[in-house]
Each structure stands twice: as structure tokens, then as C-alpha cells.
Specification:
Isochorismatase family protein, 14% strand, 8 helices, 229 residues, 7-stranded parallel β-sheet, Isochorismatase-like_dom
Length: 229
Amino acid sequence: MTGMTEPYVTTQNIESKTVEWLERIGACNRHVMELKPGNSALLVIDMQNFFLDPASPSFTCGGTAILPAVKRLVAAFRRASRPVIFTRHVHHPANLDSGIMQWWWEGMCLEGSPDSEIHPELASLPNEKVVLKHRYSAFYNTDLETVLRCLKVEDLVITGVMTNMCCESTARDAYFRDYRVFFPADANGSINEEMHLASLINLAFGFAYVTNSGSIVSQIDPDPSHGKK
């Protein structure tokens, strides 16, 4: 289920859409938190060509719409000298690690392929951690938790694709591990609005503070001139 005739969100309307989403989940989004910059990290989930290339069978329209917001967050965290951690969802070319996912999905993102690379506008720096994962959650059978503990991270800002799959799974696992989770609605994307909004409701109700990228940027990097395009 990846095809759509019209994207549910674009770079042109994502700001107004985000206002609408936050209003619709307001009754559930009661655990308002202020980011602790010195104990925060940014997690960029699966912003890979596999999901962001319009020619890919797994193209996620929400991913291209959120790209500018994710870029702003990455830049802000880098300016603040706070960790930016990327994930790449990949599988061995011989499907040694695919398991049930090979049956569930028609195609796999193969390790070492061009599709598996992070979008060029979000390329990681040499000193930034890239987590390779084989399941939805970035915590499952990876060293992400070890890295976060060593960095003394308490507040985790989660961005990427897909809102209702890898991003939500990671947010839930982060909450289970006692991280304070910040989930910007305009920096997480899916394939349709129903799935995106359902995840925002679920996460706001039980796992995260759903907010917007501008609020996060202003807290991690208070200089207003930095947030300008």
C-alpha cells in the first residue's frame, strides 16, 4: 500500500497542515514538555532514497514534504553541538535478516544499494552515528540505546519516515526506556494522512509530546536568524 494519486501533504501546505493536525490531537496532547538542550539528541529515521525517490515503489510522499523541516532540525542540532543520529533500514542481499518482513513486504531495501543511502541533502557527517537496523524500531537489536546512554541523552527528538511505522515504533520503544520523546508533526511523514494522523493521536495519548519543528529549533538554537531559509 504505497501508491497515491495526490500527496496528502506538500512542502507548500505542510505548515497549515501541521496547525490543523495539532489542533485535532489537542485533547490527547496534554504532556507538554520543554526541551533540555544539553541532554537532547536528534534521531533521523530512514530518510533514504528507498523512501524519498519518486521512482521507488516504496516512495513515501510525506518524506519529501518534511525534508526542509528535517534539514532545519539537523542544522540546528549541529550548531548547538548536540548529537544527530541517523538510521538506515537495510537488509542483506541474500535476505539473511529479512525474516517475516520478506513475506510481509514486496520489496527489501538492500544493504549497499543506492536506494539504501541517506538522501543527499541529509548526508551524515563523519562524526555522526548511523544505525543500521532490520526492523521498524531503531532500538531493536541495534546499539542505539548504548550510544544514547553514553551521550547522556534524556530528550529524544524523532523525525523521519514512516510516521506510523518506524518512527512510531521507535518513539514507543524510547518511551519504554524512559526517554522524553518529542515528535514534530511536520518532520515525520507517511503515505497518507489517515495513517499519519492516527499515529500522532496514539503517540500524544501515551508516548510523546507532539509538536512542530519550529518549536524544537527555537529551543535548541534560540538565535532567530538561524531558522531563516
